């Protein structure tokens, strides 16, 4: 049998496009915004479609407690609060390329004095 050329060029297999949702949580807004900007810049350099830096409502945790350890004395109270900031970033692209771009940017930003409390990424397959 002889090889017959059909005139068609071989087509590369299509790469599945995934939605990657990154949730960043921190108590320090400045470092959170810096990491978000660096992640978005790194994703755009890799030609990924970026939707993001969605600012979620600030969660304020409050504790009100008596200043005095015993029940004696004037009734004075201390009020403590901790503000937790949350950002969402959505990336659309191949899973392999997206995870590589995230890891390269994240490893550069891991030297922050006040690191992020948590980085959670959710991989949703469409």
Describe this structure in words.
Helix content is 25%, strand content 38%. It has helices at residues 29-45, 95-109, and strands spanning 18-26, 49-55, 59-66, 77-93, 118-124. With 126 residues, the protein is α+β, with helices and mostly antiparallel strands.
Attribute tags:
ribonucleoprotein, 25% helix, rod-shaped, alpha+beta, Ribosomal_uS10_dom, structural constituent of ribosome, 126 residues, ribosomal protein, Alpha-Beta Plaits, 38% strand, 5-stranded antiparallel β-sheet
Brief synopsis:
The protein has 126 residues and is α+β, with helices and mostly antiparallel strands.
Write the topology of this structure.
Elements: E1 18-26, H1 29-45, E2 49-55, E3 59-66, E4 77-93, H2 95-109, E5 118-124
Antiparallel strand pairs: 1-4, 1-5, 2-4, 3-4
Approximate strand percentage: 35-45%
What is the overall shape?
A: rod-shaped
CATH class bucket: Alpha Beta
CATH fold node name: Alpha-Beta Plaits
Largest sheet: 5 strands, antiparallel
- Average pLDDT works out at 76
Proportion of residues in helical segments: 25-40%
Domain module tally = 1
What is the strand tally? 5
What is the CATH homologous superfamily assignment? Ribosomal protein S10
* CATH architecture assignment name: 2-Layer Sandwich
> What Rg do the Cα atoms give?
24 Å
The total count of helices amounts to: 2
Which structural category fits the helices and strands? alpha+beta
Which runs of at least 5 residues are low in confidence (pLDDT < 50)? 110-115
